[in-house]
Design brief:
The complex is a heterodimer of chains A (555) and B (129). With 555 residues, chain A is mainly alpha-helical. Helix content of chain A is 41%, strand content 8%. Chain A is built from 25 helices and 12 strands. The chains are: A mainly alpha (555), B alpha/beta (129).
Chain lengths: 555, 129
């Protein structure tokens, strides 16, 4: 307890303005001396725990997903908690995709308690807070008001939702913090965990691709964010994060509100607030939408005048710093810009029929649904043990940017592996039992004899035949070296070696193993080329009837 | 503790006469306040393993003077044993003088009449023409 000197006339006015109606439950809590004044250690412990869990999940997201942790917790757990993912995917698919519905928990918590997810759970936010802690102890000034353009995040959210309504998970979804940090981790960490000589593994060698650039762009974006954070704490959350904007909209009338009874205007809470939600000129005034309920104001308050209590969700008047009022002109501008860009994005989308190199992972949804539900998190790319899955550059259009494609020259779809579908947080790659792996074709390989060394150089080579898991390559029997081992054996003059003849369409599943092996031997283009030809697309009904995936509720 | 104290962040405490915490106003004598360049700025309860403990917020004109901070802490313990310790803050000289004038009734002009040895080094420097 402490007393405060008599307030002046002007301050009395402010004090009156701050008073808000309280709930009966709030009075009960006050009477029992229970305030959510808390201690910073609580959110910090939760943040540290969630961040450790996220790191562990990222680490175990790799074939065969049989670690203890991967069996206890879905490897895509945090992505499934993301309500923006749920909204965009369910909106785009026009149905409730069951796997995303876990985010309803976050949705409800945000409506009731505010942006707790941002302050306690978000791993990117935890990273920012840890970084800010280091900077503060190095005496780097990172506190300050949010820039005036902090509403940018709302316009980005608006654009994402408009595009989502048209059934497109736009590349803007890549700005979602959970998606972004997952992709960064996959880009930075994964190459060191996998037997691969590629540091960047996007479609780097395909003609017209910009894979290096876009993997680099992810990294540059992340580095840029951290540099920005060096200037202003949580600048990404304040200005750009679309998930933060979404939760801010949801939490405008949360019941867990800040109270400042006995404030002595020392400015310490305003300085400590990581999102600049507290007004520097009057610390009792704050912006509920920007408050992430980290309780730092409460912990740092030197006279224990900051605490959180349950209050009526609809206060008559709440003084707010920077009340979020989006400018109608800018909002309409965003709408028109989005609507104008939508046809360009849609027309640039790749189609299996027109682009034979666009090969999706096995059991991917039909292309339109795939693009409506793939959130570009690259969990599948991370999980893939062979490196055949890459995130696309611009070679398949803007709409397909960062979506997973199979690049057979860099790997093959391994028999006995369905890690990509298990890791997918939105069922864009449907779940299926392992024994049904080849029930649906991912594509079909095409044989071009003019590039095969058994034709051009009369050498024995059966690498593609050996690699094929379904015996889909028909051969023309001929000379074989003793033991039939290895490749590149010149046939004796006058004899023709055993040669591939054709790919049996009905048996080929488009795993790309033949192309991968052929690519190791030939110079230039391989004789076996995997294509999306004949890609079989599981329909929702088909999959539900076969019990191959989690059910979906169509509405 | 030295390196920890060096790394610790000292917050800037904005003080205004109309919001000055009066409860702790008289914890230090005015002579102690002037000599050390300090202000008592209310209590803070901190949770620890042993339960809640009460700390005194103390504003310093020279918070990085660790010798001075230790002296003030010892003074505090000798006078008020129930207080677990102090939390140091940085205060602005102009705000300090304003508080001296309006809360403690020590106007700026009267400081010049005092013996310089009774004033903190910052005050002495400020009073030196």
């Amino acid at each position: 307890m402490h007393t405060v000197a008599k307030a002046t006339g002007s301050s009395e006015l402010t004090t009156t303005a701050v008073k808000k109606p309280s709930w009966p439950l709030s009075n009960l809590l006050k009477a029992s001396n229970v305030h959510w004044s808390s201690h910073a250690s609580h959110p910090i412990l939760v943040q540290a725990g969630v961040f450790a869990l996220w790191v562990a999940l990222i680490y175990v997201t790799r074939h065969p997903l049989d670690s203890w942790l991967a069996q206890q917790v879905p490897v895509n757990f945090l992505l499934r908690l993301d309500p923006l993912v749920m909204t965009v995917v369910c909106g785009g698919m026009r149905m409730a995709v069951t796997i995303t519905l876990l985010a309803v928990v976050t949705f409800v918590v945000s409506v009731l308690l505010g942006r707790v997810f941002c302050g306690w759970v978000c791993p990117l936010g935890s990273l920012f807070d840890a970084y800010a802690w280091v900077l503060r102890h190095l005496r780097v000034p990172i506190e300050g008001k949010s820039p005036r353009w902090f509403t940018l995040k709302y316009y980005l959210l608006f654009a994402i939702l408009v595009l989502g309504a048209f059934g497109a998970v736009s590349p803007l979804m890549g700005l979602d913090p959970i998606v972004l940090i997952t992709r960064v981790a996959a880009t930075v960490v994964n190459p060191f965990l996998r037997e691969s000589d590629k540091i960047f593994w996007t479609v780097s060698e395909a003609p017209g691709s910009y894979g290096y650039f876009f993997d680099g762009a992810t990294l540059l974006l992340f580095i840029g964010i951290m540099v920005g954070t060096t200037r202003l704490s949580r600048i990404w959350c304040r200005t750009t994060c679309p998930l933060g904007a979404y939760l801010a909209v949801l939490s405008r009338h949360s019941v867990l509100r800040r109270d400042t009874e006995g404030c002595i205007h020392c400015n310490i809470c305003a300085v400590h607030c990581p999102t600049g939600a507290i007004d520097f000129t009057d610390e009792r005034v704050y912006n509920e939408s920007e408050c992430i309920k980290c309780f730092l104001c409460s912990t740092e308050c030197p006279v224990d005048a900051n605490f959180f209590t349950l209050k009526s969700p609809l206060p008559a008047t709440t003084p707010s710093q920077y009340p979020v009022s989006l400018q109608r002109r800018t909002l309409f501008g965003t709408l028109f810009a989005t609507l104008l860009s939508a046809p360009l994005i849609f027309r640039s989308a790749g189609k299996p029929g027109s682009s034979k190199t666009l090969i999706r992972p096995p059991m991917s949804r039909e292309e339109r649904d795939f693009l409506a539900s793939c959130i570009r998190c690259t969990e599948c790319v991370k999980a893939c043990p062979t490196g055949i899955l890459k995130s696309a550059g611009l070679e398949h259009g803007i709409r397909a940017l960062w979506s997973p494609v199979m690049v057979s020259s860099e790997g093959y779809c391994q028999e006995g592996c369905h890690a990509c579908s298990e890791a997918c947080p939105t069922d864009a790659i449907m779940k299926y039992p392992l024994e049904q792996k080849y029930a649906y074709k991912a594509g079909t390989a095409v044989f071009e004899s003019s590039r095969c060394i058994s034709y051009t150089e009369n050498k024995f080579c059966n690498e593609c035949v050996k690699a094929c898991p379904t015996d889909a390559i028909a051969v023309l029997k001929g000379w074989e070296p003793p033991g039939s081992q290895g490749a590149d054996f010149p046939a004796p003059s006058g004899l023709t070696p055993t040669r591939p003849l054709r790919v049996v369409y009905e048996r080929c599943v488009g795993c790309g193993a033949c192309e991968y092996e052929c690519n190791k031997i030939v110079f230039g283009s391989p004789a076996m080329t995997n294509t999306s030809q004949g890609r079989a697309v599981p329909t929702t009904l088909d999959v539900v009837m076969r019990g191959k995936t989690e059910s979906v509720w169509v509405f | 503790m030295g390196i920890l104290r060096f790394l610790s962040v000292v917050e800037r405490f904005h003080v205004e006469p109309q919001y000055f915490p009066l409860l702790t106003k008289d914890l230090f004598e005015i002579d102690e306040i002037l000599k050390n360049g300090i202000l008592p700025l209310g209590f803070k309860l901190q949770q620890s393993f042993g339960g809640k403990r009460q700390f005194l917020n103390v504003g310093f004109l020279t918070p990085r003077d660790s010798k001075l901070v230790s002296e003030v802490e010892a003074l505090l313990r000798s006078k008020h044993g129930a207080i677990a310790g102090l939390i140091r803050y940085q205060i602005d000289l102009q705000e300090y003088l304003q508080i001296l004038d309006s809360i403690y009734g020590v106007p700026f002009d009267s400081l010049a009449a005092r013996n310089p040895a009774e004033l903190s080094s910052v005050l002495q420097d400020h009073l030196t023409p």
